[in-house]
Amino acid sequence: MTDRQRQIWIDRAAVTAAWIAALVFFFPIFWMVLTSLKTEGQAIQVPPLLIFEPTLENYLEIQERTNYFKFAMNSVITAFGGTLLALLIAIPSAYSMAFNTTHRTKDVLMWMLSTKMLPAVGVMMPIYFLAQKFDLFDTRTLLVVIYAMMNLPIVMLILFNYFREIPKEILEASRMDGTSTFNEIRQIVLPLAWGGIASTALLSIILCWNEAFWSIVLTTTDASTLTAFVASFQAPEGLFWAKVSAVSTLACAPIVVFGWMAQKQLVQGLTFGAVK
Amino acid sequence: MKSLRNTALGLAIGVAGATTAFAGELTIATVNNGHMVEMQKFTPEFEAANPGITLNWVTLDEGTLRSRVTTDITTKGGQFDVMTIGMYEAPIWGARGWLEELTFDAEYDVDDILPAMRGGLSHEGKLYAAPFYGESSMIMYRKDLVEAAGMSIEDNPSWDHIREVAKAITNKDEGVYGICLRGKPGWGDNMAFITTMANSFGAQWFNEDWTPALNSEAWKDAVTFYVEMLNESGPPGSEGNSFNEILALMNEGKCGMWIDATIAASFVTDPAQSKVADKIAFAQSPQKATTKGANWLWAWALAVPAGTKQGDDAKKFIEWATSKSYIELVASKNGWGSVPTGTRQSTYDNPKFQEAATFDEAELKAILSANPEDSTMNPSPYVGVQFAAIPEFQAIGTAVGQQMTDALAGNITVEEALANGQAAADREMKKAGYY
């Protein structure tokens, strides 16, 4: 076998492995959509039904019982709001650490990242009491702040890595021309790192969108997001798989479409800018 | 600057939306059970009859509901005006002053509420939660399989007979298992069932001096019987099964017998979801050393937290949702087979209900035979059939439930499970200052 033939086989094997991995990841979504089109009785049948008469009754019941758009709007506002707030804090911080590095910078980053290792439930009561004290319980403002704080370490780390790729010489040249720090960030750093910032924002939006713990604990009626909406369809006594599948499909649909449209930036963000 | 302005505007939109509840808006915390879902659909009827009051529903899964309402009530959060709570919480929270006492006018006919339900939701004669629907436990079995095996199941059979029947109707080659029982850990999951079984074997949670009694021979016999029977005739993976998992198996025709909540009767006899709807029969729970405590008693009930600023409106809602007229309203829209049961004698007396519900007689008999104040063979200091109505029970029940699941899975022996459970219960009771 020549080197060229060997390379062709390696490529084919890699493509096949990628397809298998993609199908494995896609299967739960396929199964969720399929189950959402079954009746509750069909949803629990063993062996599982693959051919059946699809029904939209689960979607109709969800629409009849709840206001999906209210939950969806809360998800949109809190995910985008939380991401914006995180970026507003992270961009100047990451700039500072990337371009004024000290021997403690890595420790600071690690310390910030270590806050992600704390289980959320560990700080539930303090946050619950603070929310009560400031009369922010069940408000989107509270979720925006929580989501921003929750994602800040990751957003900071990714932006730090992007900013470090900008040649320092460009910044030094601008300083020679007398540019202020603010203008340096606005006119040089942001345009050069725009792709990285966009992919970081996308990743943060997805993390906010899928967040369930705080949304369930800190909201009741006004600020509940789609994750709380999905959780509300679990039943202690009675079958609920088909309805939960339908409600999960509705909850996932906007972010799946969004992620599909922005997949290029998303992959960049997930690889920390390693792939150019 | 334009892009920064846009960013700031976006953020302002993002953080906008701080809202507060308006007077006349009731926030009701509830679970996603069929009857509760129906109640939500009748919101327009309530609002039309009570101008000025609007209803906001918060539907949570059972575990989250418990932790949310407990947190809210202990921190005086005031997030909820009406809470859906169970028979375990009502007397404990009532005694602590966390719930408002419920009093109703003559038209409500409080005496129509089944005495067992009323007693279980009261403390020192004061009603702290009104039952929305109630349940006990009973045997639901495949009449066709039992008859084909040349056997029968009468009311209150012995546990030995149940084990024999389970063995006889098991056909593992066809995936049919003689008996399905809860195995998933939790005080409201496996321990609800195991406690009723232990009661009938003569066991109890606590001795008269509040010391845990899990080291008794009766507990050992009951749990050994449970583990052996499920290993012989139960489905694989029973340690992961609770109500919904077994309901799915039963509806698929994979279980010959199921001993669980009476509410299941309405699901397993529903042809829309059960393949064996016309083959199901009912009998009262099995017994062994005593007739006491063999079937549990539970109610999902509506209560008003003491912290609410809208107590009067909240009580008005509860009066409506738990009234005879609400049951008639549901019947007029969905039929008598769909009304919430287990709460009022008048429901069971109604000929239309008797005609529509095939399980009404068995359900009422089970509910009426459960006595939370006398559920153990020997005297015990606590109230409750499948639980002990003390605040510490939740932690103890869950810890012991985990041990039972481990024993069922074969990770530890029954003796080890009970010894570990006894130690956990002892630690908890000592910490709480019982002795």
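qc> Residues 1-21 of chain B have pLDDT under 50 and may be disordered.
qc> done
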